[in-house]
Amino acid sequence: MTTSAYAHQDLPFERLVEALPPERDAQHTPLFQVLFDYVNTPLQALDLRGLTLSPVALEIETAKFDLSLLIEERGDTLVGAIEYSTELFETGTVQRLADHFMRLLDAALTQPQADIAALALVSDAERDLLLRGWNETDRQWEAGPCSVQGRFEAQVQRGPDAVAVVFEGQTLSYVQLDERANQLAHHLRELGVGPDVAVGLCVHRSLEMVVALLGILKAGGAYVPLDPSYPPERLAFMVRDAGLALVLSHTATACVSPPATLQVCLDTLDLGARPRHAPAVPVGPDHLAYVVYTSGSTGQPKGVMCRHEAVLRLACGRGFAVLDASHTVLQAAPLAFDASTFEIWGALLNGARLAVMPPGPLELPAMEALIQRERVSTLWLTAGLFHSIVDERPLMLAGVSQVLAGGDVLSAPHLQALFGQRVGGCVINGYGPTENTTFTCCHVMREAPGAGCSVPIGRPVDGTRVYVLDGRMQPLPVGVAGELYTAGAGLARGYLGQPG
After folding, report:
1. Sorting pLDDT into bands at 50, 70 and 90, what band is 2?
2. Is residue 207 part of a domain?
3. How many domains does the chain have?
4. Are 405 and 452 contained in the same domain?
């Protein structure tokens, strides 16, 4: 807007609409939906003999625009009012808007030379709510061993004979899985694996995959998933970038790697003579548990280094899903996708059963059969796969008590369709980047969102803090859009080989 526009201020709004003719929409007024009206025209005194005149406030029942801020000069004071559509705004939202505007005016008066973007909108009370009140998440997961393998071994003590893993008719109890992983760990120790040593793992979904994950951790190392379906060039890059001296694979999945990298085929490895007890390796919460490569939005994949504490915060926190020995968790995500972190360790660190899908692309009939056969109670789905299931086979979720979905925006109509059929239990919208160990926020739904509503990302999970900040890294008021920042125990150590 320029001051020259004032030359046309007497043009009636209706004439402007006629001249432009904008595209009409019954949902809102043409041209604009938010109005700021500053009235500084003095009222003419009106003198009628024998009559006493006084202003009467009129009750306005219909808003002309979605939102209008009206300011009027009355002598040496300013009087304001906000008119709003009750279909779009709640009273509390408008009250906050008024409070923030008043605070902005006060700040401008006390700091007239300041950049307007630097003026505070947030009161001390609201700031405390944003920074602390909404971030008071539980940290009960900190009780107990501080490493993934230590927490697993505690579960072995609680229920040694309980089934830990099911795969294509084969099973391993908790104690059997523990002993096989211990034997592999002793072998890996002899090959030089120790704390923070990265070990590649290039296998399909299988019992050996789970044994290898646990064996690497018990040796003190960090596993680096190498998806056998990736192009050879990408796998070779990941091996070089991670500086892997050792890669565990199957005969059928041995990947291209530099000559200096040792490949060990798990399906031909004889560990019968190795000790069945765990090797003594000191591992703490800040040691690496795994390195997973992002898709590489900048053109080059980056290795995200995730710590033991971050995995424990995800798998053992109680901020969203409930997992215990009565649950069976489906393992269907590729190991190189961080959803597998929740699937595998969410099950094994809580005494649940892990039902592993056969290798290969996910087919809904096969998934449905496994869910029913193994009585899966908890599963994680990409948003796209969730939508496909609701469209094509919603009854496959009938016995599932917890469906976690994410990776993209969940469709409210699909949730309405699912809950409308009274199929299954709760749906949990899981949101978060790989750099914060799978989930940052979760929203638990036991009923569908209302018509026209979007699906919230929810509240921070245990051990996590989130903030909506402006460009100056300052908290924004409730309801104001900004950048989402996260902090807490889930944060990765950083990107492999990159400072900062």
Report:
1. low
2. yes
3. 3
4. yes
Q: Are 151 and 289 in the same domain?
A: yes
DSSP three-state, residue 45: coil
CB 336 within 8 A of CB 311: no
Tell me how crowded residue 6 is: count the other CB atoms within 10 A of its CB: 9
What string of DSSP letters covers 57-120?
A: PPPP-S-SSSEEEEEEEETTEEEEEEEE-TTT--HHHHHHHHHHHHHHHHHHHH-TTS-GGGS-
Instruction: Tell me: do 371 and 324 sit in the same domain.
Output: no
Under 8 Å between Cβ of 213 and 184: no
CB neighbourhood size of 136 (10 A): 9
Q: Residue 310: which of 440, 195, 194 has the closest Cα?
A: 440
Provide the domain limits for residue 206.
147-360
- Residue from 177, 284, 157 nearest 220 by CA: 284
Q: What is the pLDDT of residues 37-86, one digit of tens each?
A: 888 877 667 778 888 877 777 777 777 888 999 898 888 888 888 988 88
């899981």: which residue's tokens? 430
CA 186/CA 271 separation, integer angstroms: 9
Using a cut of 0.85, tell me whether the model's pTM lies above it.
yes
What is the enclosing helix (H) or strand (E) of 428? strand 426-431
* 378 sits in which H/E element: strand 378-382
The lowest-confidence range among 8-17, 261-270, 368-377, 444-453 is: 8-17
Q: What is the DSSP letter of 22?
A: P
Q: Cα separation of 20 and 17, whole Å?
A: 5
CA distances from 297 to 93, 105, 301, 302, 327 (A): 37, 42, 8, 9, 36
Whether residues 296 and 434 fall in one domain: no
Residue 103 half-sphere exposure toward CB, CA atoms < 13 A? 16
Query: 434-472: string of b/e by CB count within 10 Å (b at 16+)?
Result: bbbbbbbbbbbbeebbeeeeebebbbbbbbbbbbbebee
Structure tokens at 150: 């230590």
148-182 pLDDT, tens digit each: 999 999 999 999 999 999 999 999 999 999 999 99
- Give dist(CA 383, CA 364) in Å, integer: 14
Q: Report the sign of the C-alpha dihedral through residues 265, 266, 269, 273, in that order.
A: positive
Pairing mode, strands 288-293 and 441-445: unpaired
